[in-house]
Amino acid sequence: MKYDNSARLAKALDRDEILRRFESKVSKSVMCWQWTGCTVRLGYGRFSIAGVPMAAHRAAYQLFVGPIPKGLDIDHLCRNPGCVNPSHLEPVTRRENTLRGFGRPAVQARQVRCKRGHEFSAENTQAEKDGSRRCRECRRASQRAVYRSLSLAERAKRVAYRREWRAKRRFHLDQEAAA
């Protein structure tokens, strides 16, 4: 859970002391300001203000730019999680931050073709309940392969079940239309 430390930062008695402590843990270069203090998983820095630990890049944004807008994450434009250069930090929504990254959701969102090379077009793409996409052509091929692997008796059961389901569905739709 992320905490809004803007109020704590504003109330901190000695802002110059906080800046001095912060800058003592930064190695400035032409591009990135690399955090040299405490780091956590994936290389993100940690810094404490008034006894409350927070992400170093969030502290940098608050110290050098201003308060972080409510509900937004701080994105590293340089893609370096250890960078605390305020010109490389931008407040964005969680969704935008995720899609700019290199994680699985971002990579899949940028895909224009399925793994078998079919284009993700409006006609050939099926949206799943979990928000993912599925290639209709590949799905049909998979279903055909499963169907072909069935015995004739199993195929007949499936066909009968499908007919029965369609009849029940038509009956319920007719009942709703009549009401």
- How much β-strand is present in the residues? 15-25%
Query: Spans with pLDDT under 50 lasting ≥5 residues?
Result: none
Biggest pleated sheet = 2 strands, antiparallel
The whole-angstrom Rg is: 27 Å
- CATH T-level fold name of the largest domain: Homing Intron 3 (I-Ppo) Encoded Endonuclease, Chain A
Number of helices: 7
State the secondary-structure class: alpha+beta
Number of domains: 2
CATH class of the largest domain: Alpha Beta
Distance between the termini: 50 Å
Q: What is the number of E strands?
A: 8
The 3D shape can be described as: elongated
- Helix content bin: 40-55%
Q: What do the pLDDT scores average to? A: 89
Order of helices and strands: HHEEEEHEEHHEEHH
Give, in spatial order, the strands making up the sheet with the most strands: 1-2
- What is the architecture of the largest domain at the second tier of CATH? Alpha-Beta Complex
